[in-house]
């Protein structure tokens, strides 16, 4: 899963992209370049602008301003060329349950003009890639959620796109099935030499990407490899439960010069060498500590560092997602 930045035409190039819904600015002027062959993650809470951006890139929504090119084609003026160059797996299931797995792919192939002489072999290839060739004659309505998602990925790959867009591909699936979907994606990526652009709000999934952009409230707040982003935090996260959280936050600032905040119900702060710091905490804080946990930097710490909140807390606060609201209303 490695892209190169060479001189090749970017798989995705976005400049100053803005999308406004009446009074809500869902995407606030983002810039982005995704290299050919890269697995690129778009990480952020619901309502951050992920799905809106992906729909603009896939020609399913118009930008208010700014520009975007996919596989070298302009999403506003070269829509047909963009659509021939991309595969798309939506959050919402779009398979026909009354057709078999192979019939779903055959219908899709005809829509996309897949060469009839090679169509049958291509259907076999993609179904084998996702482990469903032995179920090709079964009705999709008999499939589990994970099997349907794998079939949607196979369908997205059928016409050999240059870029595969996956919008929250594992949403609603159990952790084991989520892990297996990513295993399939890794194997597919090696075989197909394709650029994969995936939106997710699962931290662990973003670890599978070559690079990730963290988006919050319509803006990209960080963009790099997962390793570089975590290294940039540079400190451990310490979370404590105390008898008086307000007093603890004040004491951490007054006695140690540390800025702490409440994250997921715990007093949380960052400090170098967290484990070595804990004994000082018990000795000098002056507030009873019920429990303490020290963790190495994670992508959630990166999110916390750039946005001032954890991804889970941002999810719970929620945000208006105009695109989702529009599609639910249909």
The total tally of domains equals 2
Order of helices and strands: EEEHEEHEHHHEHEHEEHEHEEHEHHH
Number of discrete helical segments: 13
CATH topology of the largest domain: Rossmann fold
Mean pLDDT across the residues is 87
Low-confidence stretches: 320-330
CATH class term of the largest domain: Alpha Beta
Count of strand segments = 14
- Strands ordered across the widest β-sheet: 6-7-8-3-9-10
Description:
By secondary structure, the chain is α/β, with parallel strands linked by helices. The chain contains 13 helices and 14 strands. The chain folds into two domains: 12-224, 3-Layer(aba) Sandwich (Rossmann fold), CATH 3.40.50.300; 235-296, Alpha-Beta Plaits (2-Layer Sandwich), CATH 3.30.70. The protein has a six-stranded mixed beta sheet, with helices on both faces. A hairpin with a 2-residue loop joins strand 9 and strand 10. The longest helix is centred in the middle third of the chain and has 18 residues, at 175-192. The two termini are 37 Å apart. Residues 320-330 have low confidence and may be disordered.
Based on the model shown, name its key terms.
elongated, 14 strands, Alpha-Beta Plaits, Rossmann fold, alpha/beta, single chain, 4-stranded antiparallel beta sheet, 330 residues
């Amino acid at each position: 899963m490695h892209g190169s930045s060479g001189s090749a035409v970017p798989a995705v190039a976005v400049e100053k992209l803005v999308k406004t819904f009446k009074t809500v600015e869902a995407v606030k002027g983002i810039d982005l370049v995704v290299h050919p062959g890269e697995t690129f993650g778009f990480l952020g809470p619901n309502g951050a602008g992920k799905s809106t951006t992906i729909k603009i890139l896939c020609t399913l929504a118009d930008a208010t301003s700014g520009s975007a090119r996919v596989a070298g084609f302009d999403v506003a003026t070269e829509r047909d060329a963009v659509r021939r160059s991309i595969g798309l797996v939506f959050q919402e299931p779009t398979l026909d349950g009354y057709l078999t797995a192979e019939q779903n792919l055959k219908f899709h192939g005809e829509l996309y003009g897949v060469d009839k002489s090679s169509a049958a072999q291509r259907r076999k290839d993609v179904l084998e890639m996702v482990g469903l060739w032995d179920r090709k004659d079964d009705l999709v309505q008999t499939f589990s959620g994970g099997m349907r998602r794998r079939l949607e990925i196979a369908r997205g790959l059928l016409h050999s796109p240059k870029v595969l867009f996956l919008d929250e591909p594992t949403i609603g699936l159990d952790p084991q099935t989520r892990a297996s979907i990513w295993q399939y994606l890794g194997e597919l990526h090696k075989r197909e030499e394709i650029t994969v652009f995936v939106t997710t709000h699962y931290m662990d999934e973003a670890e599978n990407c070559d690079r990730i952009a963290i988006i919050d409230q319509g803006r990209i707040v960080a963009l790099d490899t997962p390793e570089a982003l975590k290294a940039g935090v540079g400190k451990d996260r310490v979370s404590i439960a105390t008898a008086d959280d307000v007093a603890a936050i004040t004491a951490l600032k007054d006695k140690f010069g540390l800025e702490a905040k409440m994250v997921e119900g715990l007093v949380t702060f960052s400090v170098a060498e967290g484990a070595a710091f804990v004994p000082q905490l018990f000795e000098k804080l002056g507030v009873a500590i019920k429990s303490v946990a020290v963790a190495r930097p994670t992508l959630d710490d990166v999110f916390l560092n750039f946005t001032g909140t954890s991804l889970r807390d941002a999810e719970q606060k929620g945000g208006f997602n105009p695109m989702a609201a529009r599609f639910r209303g249909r």
